[in-house]
Amino acid sequence: AAGVIQSPRHLIKEKRETATLKCYPIPRHDTVYWYQQGPGQDPQFLISFYEKMQSDKGSIPDRFSAQQFSDYHSELNMSSLELGDSALYFCASSPGGRTRDSYEQYFGPGTRLTVT
Amino acid sequence: AQSVTQPDIHITVSEGASLELRCNYSYGATPYLFWYVQSPGQGLQLLLKYFSGDTLVQGIKGFEAEFKRSQSSFNLRKPSVHWSDAAEYFCAVDSGGGADGLTFGKGTHLIIQP
Question: Do B105 and A42 touch (CB under 8 A)?
Fold first, then answer.
């Protein structure tokens, strides 16, 4: 079965640079979520989109922005990178709507961002 | 705001022994509860979920969990663990608002002894 695709899988950037992470949800999933997981930490919710509109916002820094496109893929843009941004960034998708299935989030493999 | 507590940071179990991982939640209404498993450097895989109805839910890989409203708990169990079960286990809660982010516990690291 098709899964959530994230690219790139690994990314190395220097401080103050910009990074863009991409997420391709499972086909027919219209809701996308972004999470940040620091070393040895639990995943922290950043932001979500439903039908291309921002739905919920968590602890996303002002330096980060995200959007969902017409084909439902999403991009997380990170500017003025700091050492503390080094983490595993997960994207998850769900079918959306208000059925029980819409509450099941399926996670991608993650993008490991290292800021030096 | 909802929160999740996993009291055990590490748990060591012998292969073939039974397992119980604890999870307590704090939320005003009936929450949607999940257990995820994460192998090192990997993504999170959904083991099982509770929305409503039967308080004992079955998941993949032989796992089950029981929702106890009176104790605000959602403990994960497996009757006989295998070495491949060694991983990080996260309990999570969804407020049920639709497209809301999950709130995760800090995780429990499961070690399997031969």
Answer: yes
Question: Three-state SS for B71?
Answer: helix
pLDDT digits (tens, 9 = 90+) for A40-96: 899 999 999 988 999 889 989 999 999 999 999 999 999 999 999 999 999 999 986
Chain A contact probe: residue of B33, B48, B102 with most A CBs at under 10 A: B102
Angle at A9 between CA A6 and CA A10, to 5 degrees: 145
pLDDT per residue over B81-109, tens digit each?
A: 999 999 999 999 987 666 678 999 999 99
| φ and ψ at residue B83, rounded to 5 degrees | -55, -30
HSE-CB for A10 with a 13 A CA cutoff: 3
**Nearest C-alpha in A relative to B105:** A42
Distance from CA of B16 to the nearest CA of A (A): 27
- Asked if A90 lies within 8 A of B44 by C-beta distance, the reply is yes
Q: By the 8 A CB rule, do B25 and B93 touch?
A: yes
pLDDT tens, position by position, B19-28: 999 999 987 6
Q: Are strands A74-78 and A44-50 parallel, antiparallel or unpaired?
A: unpaired
